[in-house]
Amino acid sequence: MRQAGKHFFQVPGPSAVPDRSLKAIDQPTINHRRPDLAPVGKKALAGMKLVFRTERDVFLLPSSGPGAALAAMPCLKTSE
Predict the structure, then answer these.
(1) Residue 37: count of CB within 10 angstroms of its CB
(2) Confidence of residue 2 (pLDDT cuts 50, 70, 90)
(3) What's this model's pTM, rounded to 2 decimal places?
(4) Is the dihedral of CA 73, 77, 78, 80 positive or negative?
């Protein structure tokens, strides 16, 4: 059976990765404490607003799922 074109990401793997993705991950990483990361972060946050269709602020939590739950706990109302 002949397949036309190039196949991409079919689970389970191994999966072919698009060339533009391979090119992107081949770039040197930006230190998270350097000022040149700020424009990248701002662009990512603006893109997330588009993805989530909101004009409100979007927040990133560099944590696992339980870390996000723990971060939200101070916001929870308790009955005292």
Answers:
(1) 13
(2) low
(3) 0.48
(4) positive
